[in-house]
Amino acid sequence: xxxxxxxxxxxxxxxxxxxxxxxxxxxxxxxxxxxxxxxxxxxxxxxxxxxxxxxxxxxxxxxxxxxxxxxxxxxxxxxxxxxxxxxxxxxxxxxxxxxxxxxxxxxxxxxxxxxxxxxxxxxxxxxxxxxxxxxxxxxxxxxxxxxxxxxxxxxxxxxxxxxxxxxxxxxxxxxxxxxxxxxxxxxxxxxxxxxxxxxxxxxxxxxxxxxxxxxxxxxxxxxxxxxxxxxxxxxxxxxxxxxxxxxxxxxxxxxxxxxxxxxxxxxxxxxxxxxxxxxxxxxxxxxxxxxxxxxxxxxxxxxxxxxxxxxxxxxxxxxxxxxxxxxxxxxxxxxxxxxxxxxxxxxxxxxxxxxxxxxxxxxxxxxxxxxxxxxxxxxxxxxxxxxxxxxxxxxxxxxxxxxxxxxxxxxxxxxxxxxxxxxxxxxxxxxxxxxxxxxxxxxxxxxxxxxxxxxxxxxxxxxxxxxxxxxxxxxxxxxxxxxxxxxxxxxxxxxxxxxxxxxxxxxxxxxxxxxxxxxxxxxxxxxxxxxxxxxxxxxxxxxxxxxxxxxxxxxxxxxxxxxxxxxxxxxxxxxxxxxxxxxxxxxxxxxxxxxxxxxxxxxxxxxxxxxxxxxxxxxxxxxxxxxxxxxxxxxxxxxxxxxxxxxxxxxxxxxxxxxxxxxxxxxxxxx
Length: 671
Hints:
Elements: H1 2-21, E1 29-32, E2 37-41, E3 48-50, E4 54-55, E5 58-59, E6 62-63, E7 75-77, E8 84-85, E9 97-99, E10 106-107, E11 119-122, E12 127-128, E13 140-143, H2 148-155, E14 166-169, E15 172-175, E16 180-184, E17 191-193, E18 197-200, E19 204-207, E20 210-211, E21 223-225, E22 232-233, E23 258-259, E24 273-274, E25 294-295, H3 306-309, H4 317-320, E26 321-329, E27 340-343, E28 346-352, E29 364-371, E30 374-382, E31 386-395, E32 401-409, E33 420-425, E34 432-436, E35 444-450, E36 456-461, E37 468-473, E38 479-484, E39 492-499, E40 502-510, E41 521-529, E42 532-539, E43 545-552, E44 558-564, E45 568-574, E46 580-587, E47 592-600, E48 603-612, E49 615-623, E50 629-634, E51 644-648, E52 652-657, E53 662-669
Parallel strand pairs: 2-6, 3-7, 6-8, 8-10, 9-11, 10-12, 11-13, 16-20, 17-21, 20-22, 22-23, 24-25
Antiparallel strand pairs: 1-2, 4-5, 14-15, 15-16, 18-19, 26-53, 27-28, 28-29, 29-30, 31-32, 32-33, 33-34, 35-36, 36-37, 37-38, 39-40, 40-41, 41-42, 43-44, 44-45, 45-46, 47-48, 48-49, 49-50, 51-52, 52-53
């Protein structure tokens, strides 16, 4: 019995020890749950890896960049559930045999480079990065797909000994069934002229329409003359050469060529002008000395693609500015006219809590100060009897802060007439007064300014949203005069500034005849004094436009900037005698440009956004005082969004994202 008890004890102890030593293989994989991706691996779990279909009940579809890089892995089994293998995912390991699932959709750059792969089995692939199998001793390739030409071409494999028919002509290897040059022998010369046609024995001349992937990669090419018969240049086709000049011809159909990823990467290009815009691709000119691309001599078209294509930007957000902090703003509306301003070099933020019993209004006003990149509350006010909806703010020369708002009685609804109100704070925010305006005939005030004599000019909605009016008040907030924009259909005033005793107003109105099946709005400028309108003119715009900036310069000239269809910026400078000094416009391809503009270091600046190739890019677009395109400052990733708007400047740049939740970004210029 003692022996049996001892044996049982040893058996039980062995189970306990074995249990303590067991490892859960799922712990080996570090995952990103949102991306359904593996982002890392603990090599202590073994050098023979089987990629799971799920980890901790999360379906795995992606292997992220560098996830298994240089870990000493000797084998890997990849299931059909994996759709994407990103750049360098298995770079620099000891894998000798590899089978890729037929379900794979994307294979990243150098994803299996510098392994020991001798045998590879794979199927059709179309989205492929740079040389995913470079540096492997491949000697057996088992291709199970049906499109050997496109798959081999994009991977960078030779098409020799495949079903693709090739001929040699003056150094060019030509896949004549596909009208594509797939290789070149540099012994024929380093100054290359692409032929329009290549003769094929028994067939005749075949037009050359495409250059294959890697066709001229890393051959020491000094110059390239492209044929006007070309439609497409494959990925990395001319990368890693010495090309310093590029002329892109127009093909017979009057279309520009399509360039795939990295087609001219790592060359010596320093300037490029095209007559017809081409479609941009990732890293197209990365590694060159290219700062700008012009279209018929004009800058700006590709501004949102500089970072995407790999152009050099003289400034970058990381070197010029520091992303300091961000704050979520709860229940604030409307978002992109937030009362943020600078007083004595100090940034203040006025928060008006949304009251859900009335539309977008508040009885609570909180004052915050930006201190060491933190918002510190310094005042809290509760206004009795009425709720107020914020619309605009001003800092006067004597330090007083004025908020323009509309007033709603607590028992009212959003359809009630909304009296205008100016809430006036003393400079230290210790107290305020509420001044109710007589703005009968102006349903909601929208913007205001105060001239040097203290007169207040206010623009707002008249009888409806698109029938604006202008009202003038004295220093005691008593109405002097009020006028209506009755002569233009759908008249909407946007901006107001003063010049001595005149009030300059810009806006838009509906052009009923210039557009078909779309909304067209043209620009207008009205100048008022106490007697009424003293100047009026309009500017026809081919689409929709909103006023982004209105400035009165020291010489009393007027700068008027509009953003049309979110992708075109219209600049106008008008003299003190109302003559057009000059005009300019810039079309920014694929841009979503914020309708708010500010001046940074004498540059007119705009926030813009685009999305291309599944990635998002944001930038500050800079224009000189003479309305010339001056440059692009790429944004940090935290601030890339189509809903960003500039709010204020000084030592800090204040930017808001008007998504829900709305976010306030604080950005500081570096010394």
